[in-house]
Each structure stands twice: as structure tokens, then as C-alpha cells.
Prior knowledge:
With 314 residues, the protein is an alpha/beta fold. The protein contains 14 helices and 8 strands.
Amino acid sequence: MQTYLEFEKPIAELDRRIIELRDTASAGSIDIEAEVAKLDAKSEKLLRETYTRLSPWQKTQVARHPERPHFKDYVAGIAEDFLPLAGDRAFADDQAIIGGLARIDGRRVMLIGHEKGDDTASRLKHNFGMAKPEGYRKAIRLMALADRFGVPVVSLVDTSGAFPGVQAEERGQAEAIARSTEQCLALKVPMIAAVVGEGGSGGAIALAAANRVLMFEHAVYSVISPEGCASILWRTADKASDAAEAMRITAQQLAELGVIDVIVPEPLGGAHRDPGSAITTLKAAIIEELDALEKLSGEALLDQRRKKFLSLGG
């Protein structure tokens, strides 16, 4: 069953009527194809109109949709010969960040990303995509390995933020995030980051300080969640919609500000409605960026990346 968001209720009602009509027809000899076709067209038109005028808060809800593709889905659809590499060689293997060697269209890459999980058991296993210090230290290790052997790095960002628990703070969460961001900026191999869902705070930038930053059109990328911002400014999370509006967190707004480089289109109604199409589109965008970046020398890549981030806000 399709999960509908709050603002999709009119679409859900139309789809429910279509299902009911089909069930009625299957129980007898009634020809309802003309009526179903009419409702299908109406539903598609309403879906298109709705997704054309999404507010930043509604885009946040889409970015968090439970049926949106996750890292394991992108690995299956984008990569060949994925070889996971585990552990930070210091404390543990954090399952919120997964990474390893892979091939994309025959090209060797180091593929790293957040995994949120898609059911209760896997969400607990992956800690809802909220990494601890050992997750970022694993990412640092894998990026350093890629740099040593001249392998491009591709990261897929999808997290509400780094894990804020006491244990994470005790093990140096802020330092690990800073070191991971530093490692991104120090690479002499191409690095491409794609914000595929939520790009939350330092937990996101630690894997996204790349030469080229891609972002799905209904993803969000911000220094704090809208609820967190609202709780600080208005002392209530009920103002999350206002916070999302003020923070400029959408792909379209961030492209205008120069924070991201490429907006990757999603299927009508969001990536969760047609994951296969979304994954194929992202793969093509990544290959295009890799083709362009691999023409640059290590020093040129380093210089381009540093200038890109130093110029933000200028």
C-alpha cells in the first residue's frame, strides 16, 4: 500500500476510488475502464500540480518519506561488484554509514553513504542513519584509502544529523565530523556527493564537502532540522513549517545560493513513487560528473574544491 503524506489526501482519495472501481469490475462484468482512465488522468494532473508547488516543509516530508530509496537500494541499482569495508580500526563498525569499493558503469569508485533502514529492525540496526564517531572515522579511513589508490569517491547523503547521544559525545563526535569534512577537502581524487533525502547538519556535510554536490529536487539540506530550528527560535516545534520557509533548505533555493551544483529531477510524485527511475537518473548524473572531473589533475581537484567552499557566502 502506498503511504500518503498529509498534503496528499486529495490524491489518496482519488486513488482509493480507482481501486474500489477496479475491485467492483473484477467481481462482475461491468466495464469501468473509461471511468478509471478519467480518474487516472485526474489523479496524475492533481499529483503534478501538487508537486509543482510544494512548500519547503512539504519537501521535508517528501525527503523523509519511509518508502524513499535508501543506500542499499542505490547500491543495488547503481553499483556493480560492491565490496563493503567495515570498521574504523579503532572502536567499532557503525552501520549508520556504509561504504566500500564498487564499480559504476565499469569505473572503480569508493561508494559511501548513510543507511536509514526501511523497517523497524533495520532502522534500529542502522540507528535511523544517525552516525556515531566511529561511522565518520570509517568514512575517513575509506576516503584515505581511495585517495591512496587513485579511486574517485562517491557519497550518498541521507541523514537527519549525526547521533546526539552521550556516548557519541564521549567518543568525540564533533572532532570526528570535523576530521571527516577535512578529509573530503584534502582528497586529490574526484569526489561527488549526492543529497538523496535529508542532508542534516554536520552529519551531512561530513560526507558532502565534494567537488560537485548533487541534490534530488525534493531533497532538503540544512544546518539543523526545521523542528530543531523552531524549538530554538520559537520554543516550539509547531513552527517547523515557518522555520523551513526561512532556512532556504530546498534544492532550488540552495542552487541559487551556490551551495549545491546540480538538481537531479525525480519521477512525478517523488522518488518513492518510482524508485527505479530515480536511481537510474541519479546514476546518469553521477557518471556525467565523474567524466568531467576525471580530466582534472589532483592539484586542480584540490584547488577547485577549496575555492568552492571558501567562496560560499561571499
